[in-house]
Design goal:
Elements (H helix, E strand, L loop, with lengths): L6 E6 L15 H16 L4 H6 L2 E12 L8 E11 L3 E10 L2 E14 L4 E2 L4 H10 L6
Antiparallel strand pairs: 1-3, 2-5, 3-4, 4-5, 5-6
Length: 141
Amino acid sequence: MSDPTRAEIEVEVRYAETDQMGVVHHANYLVWFELARTRLCSLSGYHYSDIEGLGYLLMVTGAELNYRRSAHYGDTVLVSCWIDRLGSRGLNFAYEVVFDGQVLVTGKTRHVWVEVAKNRPCCIPEPLREPFARLASRSEQ
């Protein structure tokens, strides 16, 4: 199995994302994770709004972050996202935030597919199976 597709985005740390000492508040890393995750979904051929248009959501069921170093006001960090696990009803995304060649934060988010009309978890929607399997470098789930 080959490595999964990675989406990468650059984020310039804004003053509003920091404390008085210019250090990024820990909650902002989750926002950056979402930006990278949305970019990864679009690499499947389906922007997240397209997925919602099909009547499905990717509901977050858990998040894990590991902080190694801080990002600071004015830094431009690289946020990477990839599919770490792809199952029939859910998936995990993994993340890495890097500045100047050093890993600042790693993390994972867990998600389940939800059919909006029934407001219930469901299997991965048929139109999304192959595109998401391709992102995860898997031909089957």
